[in-house]
Automatic annotation (TrEMBL), chain A:
<feature type="transmembrane region" description="Helical">
    <location>
        <begin position="104"/>
        <end position="130"/>
    </location>
</feature>
<feature type="domain" description="ABC transmembrane type-1">
    <location>
        <begin position="102"/>
        <end position="293"/>
    </location>
</feature>
<keyword id="KW-0813">Transport</keyword>
<protein>
    <submittedName>
        <fullName>ABC transporter permease</fullName>
    </submittedName>
</protein>
<dbReference type="Pfam" id="PF12911">
    <property type="entry name" value="OppC_N"/>
</dbReference>
<dbReference type="InterPro" id="IPR035906">
    <property type="entry name" value="MetI-like_sf"/>
</dbReference>
<feature type="transmembrane region" description="Helical">
    <location>
        <begin position="219"/>
        <end position="236"/>
    </location>
</feature>
<keyword id="KW-0812">Transmembrane</keyword>
<keyword id="KW-1133">Transmembrane helix</keyword>
UniProtKB/TrEMBL annotation, chain B:
<dbReference type="InterPro" id="IPR000515">
    <property type="entry name" value="MetI-like"/>
</dbReference>
<dbReference type="GO" id="GO:0055085">
    <property type="term" value="P:transmembrane transport"/>
</dbReference>
<protein>
    <submittedName>
        <fullName>ABC transporter permease</fullName>
    </submittedName>
</protein>
<feature type="transmembrane region" description="Helical">
    <location>
        <begin position="12"/>
        <end position="33"/>
    </location>
</feature>
<keyword id="KW-0472">Membrane</keyword>
<feature type="transmembrane region" description="Helical">
    <location>
        <begin position="146"/>
        <end position="165"/>
    </location>
</feature>
<dbReference type="GO" id="GO:0005886">
    <property type="term" value="C:plasma membrane"/>
</dbReference>
<feature type="transmembrane region" description="Helical">
    <location>
        <begin position="293"/>
        <end position="319"/>
    </location>
</feature>
<feature type="transmembrane region" description="Helical">
    <location>
        <begin position="189"/>
        <end position="211"/>
    </location>
</feature>
Amino acid sequence: MSGSERAAALPQWTRAAATWRDALLVTWAVARRDRFALAGLIIYAVLLAVALAAPALAPYNPLDLNYRPDGDVAANEAPSLSHWLGTTNLGRDVFSQVLFGTRVALVVGFVAAFGVVVLGTLVGLVAGYYSGWVDTILMRLADVAFGIPFLPMAIVLVAFLGPSIWNTVLVMTLLLWRDTGRVIRAQVLSLRTRSYVEAARVLGASHVRTMFVHIAPNVLPLSFLYGSLAVGWAILTEASISFLGFGDPNVISWGFMLQDAYNSQAMARHAFYWFVPPGLCIMLAVMAGFFIGRGYEELLFPRLRRR
Amino acid sequence: MPTRFSFLASRLSQTVLVLWVVATLLFLIFRLMPGNPLVAYIDPNFTAEVQQALLRQFGLDQPLHVQYAVFLSNLVRGEFGRSFFSREPVSQVMWQVLPNTLVLTLSALLLAYAVGVVGGALLAARRGTWAEAWGIPAVLATRAAPEFWVGMLALALFSFTLNWFPSSGATSPGSAYSTWWAQVASWDFLRHLTLPALTLALYLQGLPTLLMRSTMLEVMDEDFITFCRMRGLPERTILLRHAARNALLPVVTAFALGIGYSIGGNVIIETVFSWPGLGRTLVRAVAAKDYPVAQAAFFLIAVVMIVMNFVADLLYSLLDPRVSHERQ
Amino acid sequence: MPLLEIENLTVQYHTLHGAVQAVRGVTLSIERGRALGLVGESGCGKTTLARALINVLSRNAAITGGAVRFDGVDLLQLSGEALNDYRWRRIGLVPQAAMDSLDPVYRVGDQLVETMRLRGGLTPAEARERAARLFALVGLEPTRLRLYPHELSGGMKQRVVIAMALALQPKLVIADEPVTALDVIVQHQVLRTMRELQETLSLSLLLITHDISVVADLCDDVAVMYAGRIVETGSVREVFAAPQHPYTMGLRNAFPSLRASSARLVPIEGYPPDLASPPNGCAFAPRCPFAVQRCWGDDPVLMPTGGGRLAACHRAMEADVLRIQAPQAFARLEATGSQAVEGGAPGGGIP
């Protein structure tokens, strides 16, 4: 509700027809003026570097069992020089698992956010541009999507499709496009009547061309805003699904680590070294998305900004 | 008032439509599960006759459209069949867990909104200060921290280290109460409720806090607030009686929506704290492929959510004297 | 001693494009029991001036100099608490956005009562009784006290706000474009009501408007504002009969009711200057058909011109002659878009 009201209120810089390049430049503008958004970008940069270098950085294979010199499994070990964050109940190296977890989080977060934003933007563009029955049908679909309890549906669907990170991503895309779709639609409705859009139509631009060349660049910053929030939600959701035991059992994710810790009673054993780091990582990654989103929001809706 | 009536009538029909679509989706998903729903249940050693009898018992020998009709009419009557495993009627299972979920959700929500409204108003009043500069990232952090992780930290600290609160369930083993109300009012129940409710509230307060802050800031720029200043009303009166009262409208609406959303999200908190509620029941039923129970739990969650969406609209139109005019 | 004396008041806005001086050294006084009309085009600083008087400016604006003396007390030197005592109890204000000035979630009567209780120290019963009388005074049935703002028409809301401004029996009421948002018939009713109230309650009134016919109808004195300055003041009768500043002459040409109906209306060509970078000379020079060399480099100050009148124009002494040329001169300016009178401006200057 407030999202669509805001979209109707509108950023000044959409007054003129923006281009795709302008839309991308906004991202840099956001990072430059907001130190939290900059912090968000830095967090993602660091996570990306860690994800890429995980095999080189990780001292052990995250799934390997480690042994003590005497041949026993090195299970439930407290942090030491050889295992910086200790070991799991099966003797796996926690630090290496945290490093490898970065990969899953980023892949799931960005792929799902990309899917959500592309689907949501398309739906919003088409619904807002064509209006009429197309709009009615698409927006009823959005109503239904809003009526579906997200996490329970995700669990049921993942259980049905089989536990794999791609199914998790697919489910998130299918359920989370609704917010982006509604907001983009409201925006397109107001853009559609602008003179330059009408001019493009009069000059004979096709519907597709009008939508993608003249309207899309103007809603793109809004898509980015919802995209950066979606990265956070996706990482959080993947972690939740894994924690509940419906995640991909062959992939080490932070959610999986926490499930592992929970199931093996790590809390009762005060094994903070095991379950604190993955949770912190999730929190940081999600916050980075929120910070960037907020940066966009302040740029797009200056009313919210401190004066 | 005809405008308000027709607005609510259209929202009501939309609500019914969404419920029907969700129910249909539910039917399809569970029918499309690999094999038939009894695969997990039927022992391969059963004779063909026994298997047939079971299929008939669950109505699975009928054509799909008949099953669909039966399914819908059962839903309307609140008839969900029997659990594959415990053999209990599903509705009975639901009646046992639903109240627990409602108690947990409502107590957490009330706490979260009380804290959020006050906190959001304060953040707005202190705009431009360090309280805002650090307050907002702190609130975002509570929204970004996975609930189950916060729950694990709470368990590790308050139950396993400090021993202040029990670590799981809603009551201590062996305790018995004459009525459900007696149980809810008991000290033991309260001790069990504290950690999950606080954890949930910590997560839930983020939305009202941020919402209250941003609507407060919007309201503070309105002409009628400037007019209050011109009249020389005390700053406290302006802030509380005028700005906060107006900013409260969307927050109250969010509260109703919040009931719906947090019931959906409860699957996590209930699992972490082994709280015998709807969400945990759903997770366990899905994991165990106890479809009748999973279906019912999911449907109930969806119903609460969709109904609360409707209630939110209703509340909004009641609370804001302008709404019935503006929406048209 | 005048009731209100404004002396060299300046107000600045901080914007993304730097500081903008919206009020640039205004000096003005309001006599007891008289109605002063403040006219000028929109954006000339009228509203900013009004809000600066009781220091209720928007967050990005600040008073940077001058004095506002009410009964001899400089309001700008008062602490927040002491200034607050002047607000509403002595100076009431009918803001420009009166339509949106009422809190949408409370009944209008309750808002009136709240003001009287919190600021006037009235008991609830007294406040309710006075609210009913105030409503009758501004021409509203007291039954409407129970309504919410959205249930009232624009004209009624305007009257509620006027009632509110009178609630604590202030000595001065500032009305900022009190009728702009209303339709013409209602405008006249509301203005009539205001004038009657001003006379019967012997208030001082500062009426701000862009419409000089309103001033001519309702006010005793007039001050003409241009680009953050007062350019001419005097009694309404004298100023409109014989304006001494070319801008006032132009305004008079631009409005219908002050001229014979047969005469053509001539708008003033051009726009007010950008106050982020005010011109060196007279701010009106770029639009003035009578501008001479001196006007471009030397900013005229407000000077007595006899008979208690003031004008800020280098050629004020020639006003009687210029006034006769004015209709043709402004018309020519409108037609050609350039200044060509009496060797006027050195080229350029027109934005």
